[in-house]
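Example record used in the benchmark description.
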Amino acid sequence: MPLPAAILKAARERPELLYTIVVAGMYLVGIVSHLWPPTRPVMAGLTPGFLLATGVAALLLAIPVERRATHLVWVGLAYLVTFALEALGVATGMIFGAYRYGTVLGAHLLGVPPVIGFNWVMVVLAFIGLFSRLPHGRFWGPVLTAAAATGFDWIMEPVAIGLGYWSWDQGTIPLQNYAAWFAIALVASASHSLLGLRWRRATPAILVGAQLVFFGVLRVALFR
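Model output (structure tokens):
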């Protein structure tokens, strides 16, 4: 079977597997390219488009036919709320602490790269998908999701700062940042649980898992 036809067949029959292979390959290239200083600026320029493309693909594959409108409304509201909180945080320092975004994540709207709200949604969705299926997941799922999302941020922070995604005005990451992450992720995941939503595929978890490996490797290798 010719390669293009084989890829199309795999995309129809095993989209989750194909997505996993593509994302794993792309993040492996990203890790290697960030570890080699000459290619790091090139990868930095690709970051916003890469986050958006892989996130949109994960979302489209995950949304089920049933209750599609409700899923999309939750995604839209989660995006708008997290983006608004980020904008308020940048403007006042009241939410996460005093910080500002660099240029790596793209153009700013109200001081915030628009892709940030979208990645918030993907991180929360990833852990919702993992924990909502546990026994009593509708109760414990939001708490575990909030804790895991906060842990994700703890792993990511030194790398994001080192790569110029954002910077803290005091030079250190305030505990307030982690408290805000926990609270925002808790509310977002609790609203998802109350709506009784279930996602079709685990592609958000695959994406965020790749991001965890990416940030974890770079943290150990470059930003300990």
